[in-house]
Amino acid sequence: GVIRPEWKIAVPWHIVAGAINPNSDYAYLGRRLPANGTDIICVANLNALTIDTVNDCYDLTYAGASWYITSMIVNADGDRLYVFDAYGYAYVFAISGGGATLSLLNSRQTLSSAAGTAYAINQVYLDESGATPYVYLVTDDNSGEFRKMGIDEPSGWFSSTSTYAYVSSTPVVDFTDIE
């Protein structure tokens, strides 16, 4: 689609993450610190420059805690939205209706670290260059990691067999040269 060169959408809450669908005129916006059972992700129509907060928002309930989304990515086909949060959980939505509709496939999958605990996911990169898609995760809390995980399709679950490009169980304030 064609998006106007300058635009703005008013949103009734703070946004901490967003992703644009590469094959439609929709974006997905993640809310900061939602209350239990409230809308966390809303679909924005980039042609109309609107969000229908009654019909186009979805909740992800995490009982007893305030949390927030740290990363959101849409795949190249525009049919999956991957969402990651500050408590080390992953969510996967199927995208349909030309980008306007989300359906939850994977809810609150815990991504455990090498140290055996959940971690804050700070950055995510989606690699669809091969036959199997992967996500690369940059994390912290309890251990710093740069991690690769496979995505099982069509379920949207992340594979339990992952590889660690870098793992550290202790914080380091300086770099060490590798010879």
Helical stretch tally: 0
Structural class: mainly beta
Instruction: Work out the strand percent.
Output: over 45%
Helix share, percent: under 10%
pLDDT averaged over residues:
76
What is the general shape?
A: globular
Strand count, sense and barrel status of the largest sheet are: 5 strands, antiparallel
Order of helices and strands: EEEEEEEEEEEEE
Give the termini separation: 50 Å
Rounded to the nearest angstrom, the radius of gyration is 17 Å
Low-confidence parts lasting 5 or more residues at pLDDT below 50?
Answer: 169-178
Number of strands: 13
What can you see in these coordinates?
The chain has 179 residues and is mostly beta strands. It is 0% helix and 50% strand. It has no helices and 13 strands. It has strands spanning 15-20, 26-31, 39-45, 50-51, 57-59, 69-74, 80-85, 89-96, 101-110, 120-127, 134-140, 144-152, 157-168. The strands form 3 sheets. Strands 1, 2, 3, 4 and 5 form a 5-stranded antiparallel sheet that branches. A hairpin with a 4-residue loop joins strand 3 and strand 4. The protein starts with 14 loop residues before the first strand and ends in an 11-residue tail after the last strand.
Outline the fold blueprint:
Blueprint: E1 15-20, E2 26-31, E3 39-45, E4 50-51, E5 57-59, E6 69-74, E7 80-85, E8 89-96, E9 101-110, E10 120-127, E11 134-140, E12 144-152, E13 157-168
Antiparallel strand pairs: 1-2, 2-3, 3-4, 3-5, 6-7, 7-8, 8-9, 10-11, 11-12, 12-13
